[in-house]
Amino acid sequence: MLRAAALRSLGALAVVGGLSGCQSFSVPLAQWRSSYDSGLAKKLTKDELAGAKSEKIADSNSLLERWLRPIGARSLKSDSSGDDAKRNPSTLVLGSDGWKPFAKPATNPDAQKELDDAIQLFQQGKLPEAEKAFAGIAKNRKETPWGEKAQFYLAETQYQRKSYVASHESFERLIADYPGTQYLDKLVSREYAIAQIWLSQSDPKAKPETKMPWYSHFNGQQPLIDTRGTGLKALEHVRHHDPTGALADDSVMQIADYHMASEDYESAAVYYDQLISDHPKSPFLQKAQLAAIDSRMKGYIGPEYDGEGLEKARELVKQTMASFPDRQADTEHLYHTLDLINDQEAERTYKVGAYYKKIGKVASAEFYFGKIPQRWPNSPWTVKAKVELAQLAKMPRKATLPSKILTQPGANDPYYSAGGGQMGGMGGMGGMGGGMGGSPGGMM
């Protein structure tokens, strides 16, 4: 009873949080919804799984033949052309519904009349009647040219009626059932427009006329909860369905900016990097490079943690300077960023030296403290490093013998174990442990 009551309370909080737009609740939920999106990968049907188990792919003559003749294509029944359609891959063409033998376009006067009547209703502005007609054709004429066109018009009719949730789902059904659909450009543009509508609901800079009333969560204009997360999913669909299209870089940039505004700097850096690598001719290239540097600088949380982001930021600074050498204002900002990166790396090196000094490794401490005046002579950490070097010069030094494993033949191989030519089971590990235990400072 207590568990059921707790689950009901959590469900109520989810609805309230989604309707009220609470930042502390909706941001993680939006990120989770955009990350776990089953719509980006179509699962195999039962027929496809059964066909994969019943056929032996290894029986194909070559890798090229297996690529040209997938499982579904080899299971096709021979048509009027005889067995040539099965044996000769050149008779197969890729259509909106998969690989099929080349054939003349089918004709079906009844299906065409149904579709024409539905389109006439759409053109006359009778959208409810048109939506019902298109839904029936898309269901009854599935995997046919009339079913594909009806599915597109169904989604378009729902969009015109401002039923954005149903429209988005219908567009996703269109791309799932007809991967090579001829309406890809229109589908992508509509999903992008729907994403803009949903994301504007939580954007404080959006125009007032773009805001929808609270009850729009219940009439199909907005999702019931997590409008922003569903908007991010729509943007993911845009870049996934048409990765080289005109709206792909816009979608990546908006997703990255969203994560940046939500202070999820790691996710933002990933999307900025994708735009830089996948869309080198995008008008957002320089903005993405500068934002990628900024996200890594803000994502760096101190010398005690991983500093890989600083190295990546340094590479991006050099790349941006080489790509846009004539941007004087940005160049000055980038030089300032380089100074910050150098200062952070000097601090990291100082912390490592301080650690070795603390545990009594004088030589190791001198090595790291000595790097700072050489690599960063103008850094404020140079003065502190010189003070530490002066103190280390007066400290006693202990001779450190090398580990036993390093004195054996094949010592350049850290996994070498004498006797068997390979690691000698527990004995080899024991020898390694003994070597390291006998000289704790040998590996320092």
From TrEMBL:
Alphabetical list of Gene3D superfamilies matching this protein: Tetratricopeptide repeat domain (1.25.40.10)
Matches recorded under Pfam families: TPR_6 (PF13174)
Name by which UniProt lists this protein: Outer membrane protein assembly factor BamD
